[in-house]
Amino acid sequence: MNKLQTLDYQGILDLNQVQLNARNKLNERIQNKKIIFEDVSCLCGSNEYDVISSIDRYGLEQQTVICKDCGLIRSNPRYIQEEYKLFYETDEYRLLYESNSIKECAMVNFDAAENLKDGQNIIQIISKFKQIDNSVNILEFGCGGGWNLIPFVRRGANCIGIDYGKEYTQLGREYGLNILQGSLESVKGKYDIIILSHVLEHFLDPISDLKEIKSHLCENGLLYISVPNITNLSLAQIQSAHTYYFCPDNLQYYVQSAGFKIIDYGKSQNIHMYGLFKRGDIAPDINLLSLSKKNMYRVIKQMKVITYIKLMLKKLHLFEILKTILKR
Ligand SMILES: [Zn+2]
Fold it and tell me: Does 36 share its domain with 84?
């Protein structure tokens, strides 16, 4: 038996009163069994796991586990599909994450340099392999308001974005982008480039969803995926909305399993990573899973030591003082 123990902590983020109220309301619904959870196996098929933590960064009751066989981290048990839908639609969720309304959010400004940065990085990566001009059809699934598509639109590409969110998609259309509100089922047609920026970690069934996405990718098309890189694990990254937490090795393995081969990989936005993929039906390399398992167990051990030290310093009111000193 592995001796990995659950961390006992009160949520690692400092929350304001609005966030605290939203968090407490959600926890009350969980404790009163108003939210339905389900057990899910790992993507490798295994049901053997060790518990990493029992609550998320906000202090929401959500167990996070690591698969004993492949090292993939996942939420388990997790909300059933209908609950996730409600979770994204409720005010509590938005208040917890953004602590203000969408209309007041910084993302409303479509021309702000900060909001265009990610799209510019993506176009730079893709341009190494494909020229972006008016002959190229692009789909971004999970596009929010569509900020990432703006640099592509400016190069003349034909872009379409799809997202679950009603208000963000509305904002994108008001800005003049071709953005639809919908799910993966609403994707129609074939594309030269498909972008999944910080979306895969929310999918309930990533392999089957990626296979569906593949059916919309042209023969020589490119699939861009960016996700958090969980080798930078800290409890601040653990959140109910994330179903899976990938590291470079298991990301490559599971995307390969859906019928893709990797052509480029790198760091994106400090603690995140990207992979660029082509269609390719090759057997996924099983060695990637043993590497992932070895690395992730090591990462978790390190994180636990760091977290205990941080919490201890916080308890002794030394954390802020130490941070100030280190900043000097
Ligand atoms: Zn597994």
Answer: yes
> Do residues 76 and 49 touch, judged by C-beta distance below 8 A?
yes
Residue 297: inside a domain, yes or no?
A: yes
pLDDT of 86 = 80
CA of 276 to the centre of ligand 1 (A): 23
Q: CA-to-CA distance for 95 and 116, rounded, in angstroms?
A: 24
Ligand 1 centroid to residue 253 C-alpha, Å: 11
- Residues within 5 Å of ion ligand 1 by Cβ? 42, 44, 46, 67, 69-70, 72
Closest CA to 273 of 322, 220, 307, 237: 237
What's the whole-model pTM score? 0.89
Q: In this predicted model, what pLDDT tens digit does every residue of 134-169 receive, in sequence order?
A: 999 999 999 989 999 999 999 999 999 999 888 889
Q: Kindly state the helix (H) or strand (E) to which residue 37 belongs, with its residue range.
A: strand 37-38
**Crossing angle between the packed helical segments 17-31 and 91-98, to the nearest 10 degrees:** 140
pLDDT in tens, 101-117: 666 677 778 888 888 99
Range of the domain at 90: 17-103+289-327
